[in-house]
Amino acid sequence: MSVTLTDAAARHVTRYLAKRAKGVGVRLGVKTTGCSGLAYKLEYADEIAPEDVVFEDNGVKVLVDPKSMAYIDGTKLDFVREGLNEGFKFINPNERDRCGCGESFRV
Predict the structure, then answer these.
(1) H helices of the chain, where?
(2) How far is Cα 100 from Cα 92, in angstroms, rounded to an integer?
(3) Between 38 and 66, where is the model more confident?
(4) From residue 49, how far is each of 5, 24, 43, 67, 71 by CA, in Å?
(5) What one-character-per-residue DSSP string does 3-21 give?
(6) Residue closest to 68 by CA, chosen among 34, 38, 101
(7) Range 53-85 burial, b when 16+ CB lie within 10 A, else e
(8) What is the pLDDT of residue 18?
(9) In this structure, what are the phi and psi dihedrals at residue 75, rounded to the nearest 5 degrees?
(10) Which of 9, 31, 34, 52 has its CA 20 to 30 A from that of 63?
(11) What are the tens digits of pLDDT across the range 7-58?
(12) Residue 90's CB: how many other CB atoms inside 10 A?
């Protein structure tokens, strides 16, 4: 089981946590929504919950709730800039389909 970050994602998270002056890492999970069924949730975490599965990559902690782990095991989190847009990109080997708008996915 693993969740990893690219160098670009780790740099972005590290900079943002420093700017916030608090936080232990990022929390990654999934929620049921959208036309394909699941959507990623990503937020900055201020504490580690007892049930969290914790991964550390490039000096950044990634916290995952156990229910989400089956859907995102093996996922790599990247931070990309495309034109004027920037944001996180999820590279998930479990994804089988993604909706046309890119907001949700199916495993």
Answers:
(1) 7-20, 66-72
(2) 17
(3) 66
(4) 21, 11, 14, 14, 19
(5) -EE-HHHHHHHHHHHHHHT
(6) 38
(7) bebebeebbbbbbeebbebbeebbbbbeeeeee
(8) 94
(9) -70, 140
(10) 34
(11) 999 999 999 999 999 999 999 999 887 665 888 899 999 999 999 999 999 9
(12) 17
Question: Tokens for 98?
Answer: 């993604």
How many angstroms separate the Cα of 1 from the Cα of each of 4, 22, 66, 81, 82?
A: 10, 27, 11, 28, 30
The first and second tokens of residue 82, run together, are 């495309």
- What distances in angstroms separate CA 58 from CA 11, 36, 61, 62, 107, one per listed residue? 8, 31, 9, 10, 27
Q: Compute the residue count for the chain.
A: 107
Structure tokens at 102: 């890119």
